[in-house]
Design brief:
This protein has 295 residues and is of the alpha+beta class. The chain has helices at residues 36-41, 83-100, 129-138, 181-189, 225-237, 258-271, 284-292; strands spanning 5-13, 16-24, 46-48, 58-61, 67-70, 75-78, 103-113, 116-121, 142-145, 148-152, 156-160, 202-212, 219-222, 245-247, 250-251, 276-281.
């Protein structure tokens, strides 16, 4: 007779905690395999086999018929699932728990440049936040974050990921449409530069929505209120995966509520009071030349 195994682990980032429970006859040493994707998408995610939470946030019943659902607190996976969808769900649940503590993950990079904290926002198009960050660091900026910047209710960047590119995507999340990131670095910079990190919390002073395309004429425009909020909402909503498939035939369950969306929009309104610039350029170097004009 095959014995069902029960494994419990807890993920944490800052004050956020997410408990993950596994039930199944397939033996597993760990539920989510590794933390590469978590640390790329968030910042300094830890895993513990000694959970502090009494109730699971994610449950995986491996031997059941395939399905995925969310009841307002717990996301339940039934059946066989590849590592990728489970990891993406874990990131989304951690982002939800961060919001409960007044912390908002932004799909963005950030640097400390000329005594200001500059956020490169991955908004609607997401074309240039990594290249802008790398070029800023080439010019002496200190690194605040790469893929994700976690911002508190007072608009301070309080933590952030430090991995510029993810080298290997987990099974079930592979993307043929994503160009090799090292190739872009080779084209624009020759080799990846080195930099130092800025580790103190700091208020975001300036937001840049970069758009890099080899066909663009250089341009810099200060954005109006609606544009600021539109692009910011794209960035913070990115973590809830509401426009994504977890796996063929299975959309991400809806984690949002009207109350959460209203609170998020109110935060976006306050955050968008600072200067925002849309910068178009053919290269990261030209992008920073444009930005230097207003910094």
């Amino acid at each position: 007779m095959t014995t069902e195994q029960h494994v419990t682990e807890e993920l944490s980032v800052g004050p956020a905690r997410v408990r993950v429970d596994y039930h199944g006859t397939e033996p597993r040493a760990h539920i989510l395999e590794d933390l590469d994707f978590f640390n790329y998408r968030l910042a300094d995610v830890r895993i513990s086999s000694d959970p502090s939470l009494a109730q699971p946030d994610i449950v995986w019943n491996r031997d059941a018929e395939t399905s995925v659902s969310y009841d307002g607190h717990t996301m339940t996976f039934n059946g066989e699932w590849a590592p990728g969808p489970l990891q993406k769900a874990g990131v989304a649940m951690l982002a939800l728990r961060l919001e409960e503590h007044g912390l908002h993950p932004f799909h963005s990079s950030a640097v400390r440049y000329r005594d200001r904290t500059v956020l490169f926002l991955g908004g609607e198009s997401n074309h240039g936040k990594s290249m802008g960050q790398i070029e800023a660091c080439r010019r002496g900026a200190l690194l605040v974050s790469t893929e994700t910047t976690v911002v508190d209710e007072t608009a301070r960047a309080v933590m952030g990921s430090k991995t510029v590119f993810i080298k290997k995507r987990a099974q079930g999340t592979e993307r043929a449409d994503k160009a090799a990131p090292d190739r872009a670095v080779e084209i624009f910079f020759g080799a990846m530069p080195t930099w130092e990190e800025y580790t103190e919390p700091s208020t975001v002073d300036v937001v840049v929505v970069p758009s890099i395309d080899g066909n663009y004429e250089p341009s810099l425009a200060e954005m109006i209120s609606f544009e600021k909020q539109f692009q910011t909402l794209h960035s913070v909503q990115n973590y809830f995966l509401l426009n994504e498939l977890l796996a063929p035939g299975w959309a991400m369950p809806i984690l949002d509520t009207s109350a959460l969306r209203r609170a998020r929009a109110q935060f976006v309104t306050k955050f968008s009071e600072r200067p925002f610039f849309m910068v178009r350029a053919a290269t990261p170097q030209v992008l920073m030349d444009q930005l230097d004009k207003v910094l």
